[in-house]
Amino acid sequence: MATATPNVLLIHCHDLGQYLGCYGAPIETPNVDALAAEGVRFENHFGTAPQCSPSRGSLMTGCYPHVNGLMGLAHGEWELNDDERILPHYLAEAGYETHLFGLQHITQDTDRLGYEYVHSEGNLYPGVSPAVHQVNRATNVTDVVTTFLEKRAFDAPFFASVGFFELHRVEESNGRYGFQRGRYDADDPDDVGPLSYLPDRRGIRQDLSEMHGMVYAIDDAVGRIRTCLAETGLDEETLVVFTTEHGIAFPRAKGTCYDPGVEAALIMSHPELASGGREFDALVSNVDVTPTLLDLLDVPLPTAVNGRSFRPLLSGADDEHRDELFLEMTWHDMYNPIRAIRTDRFKYIRNFWYLPRVYLPRDVFASESGREVREAYAVPTRPFEELYDLYEGPTEVDNVANEPRYEDRRRDLAERLHTWMVETDDPLLDGPIPPGDFDTIMAWPTDAG
To answer: Where would one find the signal peptide in this protein (predicted)?
Structure first.
């Protein structure tokens, strides 16, 4: 029988999006698929941002990036607001032991996270050094997690954050950013299915074939952890949550508010709370995950969060969760202020800066796939308003913002987006947002001559 106070094992990785077999991607991921078959899967789950730290911050706080302060990368001098609370804080107060395994990427100060036990060093950023890559790889993190589970080295219900380095690109000696083909079991580029929103070109297939190796590493790690849970008898008393923060690191995905940039896997499994192989089509945001977990564990829900619990979906009390999702981006490796709203059918994107047609983050720009398209994507100026009819154009290529038949829809979504920005006190309404290291820049000595 499942325990009334379940353990929580939150497994997360980089840049995966929904690139899994159970989401229809052309790849075999039997272990993650099995987790979904026994648990529940959310078909329309999205991160709040198409980048790592801001989206992860929303996952752990239940607040949008511009609300919790994490509007850029944690290693880029962005931090959560001083008074911000995250999931392990709430669970520790409820009597949980809290453990951090592997990667996190929401603060440079691990002490701020409030974990009672930190089982890994170098847990901030995947691109710091080869040594950090090695520590946070799925196989190594899983070694530590399974040892912990086998020893049952906990005295109370535990919450464990388990973070994998994969599928983050790595800068190679030639300046190219790839997925380390020699380290992982890549597929043959000729056997890889193309992406619907990109041209079918050799460099893109090459990147995808290499990325497959990292996906296999994650799938293997999930299988090992689930086997360990079963062998130790902890599977009946542990809520397993598998997710990622944003879409895959390819053009028109990571770094954009198009669906391939903000889509994210979300799978949950527990004998009583999340079971039966159910699939949910309702719109869900990762800002909702912390409120939902607290609700499922009967921990009082904080009032100062933007997310809402989707426990009614799991219990069958409702079949809808949200009418709309809000998305945003502010800083990454450059200033890229975007706010967006997505409904079941439409996506409205408001761009607040003069930028190329499609923004390519550094690791995507310098990749094989980036080289295939950057001449076309990196030159033209993007429009300030974009509107997509996701039923008629799911790849979000045909911008209908200026078509007369969509004028009422454009105006309605623009007003709803502006209302959300006002209600959440978005600083972008007051003008450009300075970088996280603005005070450091202003303190630089100036040439008085």
So the answer is: none
Mean pLDDT across the stretch 71-97?
Answer: 94
DSSP label at residue 175: S
CATH class for the domain made up of 7-315: alpha beta
Tell me which CATH code domain 325-430 carries.
3.30.1120.10
> Contact 181/30 with Cβ under 8 angstroms?
no
Domain boundaries, the chain: 7-315, 325-430
Per DSSP, the residues of 249-279 read SSTTSTTSSSHHHHB--EEEEBTTTB-SSEE
Contact 120, 135 (CB under 8 A): yes
Cβ count near 5 (within 10 Å): 13
DSSP H/E element including 234: none
Contacts of 14 by beta carbon, 8 Å cutoff, 6+ apart: 52, 103, 126, 164, 165, 166, 167, 168, 244, 245
For residue 354, what are its two tokens?
């003069």
For 339-368, the DSSP string reads EEEE-SSEEEEEE-S--BSS---HHHHTSH
Give CA–CA dist 189/369, Å, rounded: 12
pLDDT tens-place string over residues 118-151: 997 666 554 445 555 667 899 999 999 999 999 9
